[in-house]
């Protein structure tokens, strides 16, 4: 039996996360905070372990999309300042207050509910993304109405990762103008708009805080090779060879007979599928790495299994001999094997999508295992976990324990 193998394994290198955070922090001017975005289960990497690694390396805020994600971090005793980006119901705002989170607001009704719950707020300005957010006049009005509950002004770039800078510059100019006006009126206001791409490409977008997501996982916000940009991929996705099957001319494998052998062939049966995050569209197109060699996914990818063609013209995959592929051998879908590697960006390019989706598609039934492998020359910046505050920042007018704040 193959007791030492997992059918679907995501190995996450937390040293790589810390390296990426340190690299991004080094781009920022003194006084600019870094918010590590750990929504969507840390882009598939695991929100709690990534959050801890990010805080250790110099992040000072955490960002999530939902109140449930905020609660997961608090239940893990993570006490850092926390911002929820997305919409919430009335019941969810109550839970956000209990989690001592701060929230984004873009309507008077939402602001009123947030203030009723004694939540600190970040007014969302629509500088050009065109989703949530309000125009400059409405943002200024909401900021004024928030009073002492106002914490920040935020927006989001639509094209920071694209080659044409025109719209990016237009958004930056709009945000810069409004941020200057509101900071003059509201002491201590934190202005933030930069995502990973803007953080890496334009210092003028840094303001008081940056919100970095994809880059902290070592994935390029520009969709290219992350290594020349100073980033180290943290995710490695693997399975193993469960069985070897030999087929002859005219024999098929899998649903729809998407592969029909045109001669003798050896196939590896691999116990991972689209329910684990291996896109069905990789059928007869995607590659894997076995013993440092590229092999083609062959036949239709099933929910729980797929097959890989073992080319017979290479010594490493011949049916007999010590170098042959055998049951139990590792199969790598994202990551390095020997001198070869497959990047999430490579898979995204093949599928016509983005690396964000590749990472986020790694499903909950894939086992996460956490490694810590510092590279030569790595430096960890920022406070250790021991230096974090014992309690999170309290909601407006409340003590950290949830009771009324001492007026003195």
Please explain how this structure is put together.
This protein is an alpha/beta fold and 408 residues long. It has two domains: 14-222 and 382-387, Alanine racemase (TIM Barrel, Alpha-Beta Barrel), CATH 3.20.20; 235-342, Lyase, Ornithine Decarboxylase, Chain A, domain 1 (Beta Barrel). The protein is 26% helix and 22% strand. It is built from eleven helices and 20 strands. The strands form four sheets. An eight-stranded parallel β-barrel has the order 2-3-4-5-6-7-8-9, surrounded by six helices. Strand 7, helix 8 (166-185) and strand 8 form a beta-alpha-beta unit. The chain is elongated. Residues 313-319 and 376-408 have low confidence and may be disordered.
What is this entry, summarized?
With 408 residues, the chain is an alpha/beta fold. The chain has two domains: 14-222 and 382-387, Alanine racemase (TIM Barrel); 235-342, Lyase, Ornithine Decarboxylase, Chain A, domain 1 (Beta Barrel), CATH 2.40.37.10.
């Amino acid at each position: 039996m193959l007791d030492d193998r997992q059918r679907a394994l995501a190995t996450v290198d937390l040293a790589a996360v810390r390296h990426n955070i340190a690299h991004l922090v080094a781009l920022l001017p003194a006084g600019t905070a870094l918010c590590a975005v750990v929504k969507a289960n840390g882009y598939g990497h695991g929100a709690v372990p990534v959050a801890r690694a990010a805080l250790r390396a110099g992040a000072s805020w955490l960002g999530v999309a939902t109140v449930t994600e905020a609660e997961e971090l608090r239940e893990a005793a993570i006490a850092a300042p926390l911002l929820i980006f997305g919409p919430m119901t009335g019941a969810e705002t109550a839970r956000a207050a209990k989690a001592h989170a701060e929230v984004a607001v873009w309507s008077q009704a939402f602001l009123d509910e947030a203030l009723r719950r004694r939540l600190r707020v970040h007014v969302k300005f629509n500088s050009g993304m065109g989703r949530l957010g309000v125009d400059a006049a409405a943002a200024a009005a909401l900021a004024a109405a928030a009073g002492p509950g106002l914490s920040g002004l935020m927006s989001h770039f639509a094209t920071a990762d694209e080659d044409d800078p025109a719209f990016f510059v237009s958004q930056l100019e709009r945000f810069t103008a409004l941020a200057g006006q509101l900071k003059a009126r509201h002491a201590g206001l934190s202005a933030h708009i930069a995502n990973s791409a803007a953080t890496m490409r334009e210092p003028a977008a840094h303001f008081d805080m940056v919100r970095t997501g994809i880059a902290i996982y070592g994935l390029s916000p520009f969709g290219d090779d992350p290594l020349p940009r100073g980033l180290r991929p943290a995710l490695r996705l693997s399975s193993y060879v469960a069985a070897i099957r030999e087929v002859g001319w005219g024999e098929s494998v899998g649903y729809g007979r998407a592969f029909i052998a045109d001669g003798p062939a050896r196939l590896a049966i691999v116990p991972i599928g689209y329910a684990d995050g291996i896109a069905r569209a990789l059928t007869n197109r995607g590659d894997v790495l076995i013993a440092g060699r590229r092999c083609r996914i062959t036949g239709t990818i099933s929910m729980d299994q797929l097959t890989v063609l073992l080319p017979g013209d290479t010594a490493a995959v011949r049916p007999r001999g010590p170098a042959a592929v055998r049951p139990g051998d590792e199969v790598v879908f994202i990551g390095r094997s020997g001198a070869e590697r497959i990047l999430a960006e490579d898979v995204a390019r093949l599928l016509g999508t983005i690396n964000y989706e590749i990472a986020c598609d790694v499903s909950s039934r894939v086992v996460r295992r956490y490694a810590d492998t510092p590279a030569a020359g790595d430096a960890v910046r920022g406070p250790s976990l021991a230096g974090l505050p014992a309690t999170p920042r309290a909601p407006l007018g409340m003590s950290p324990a949830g009771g009324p704040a001492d007026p003195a």
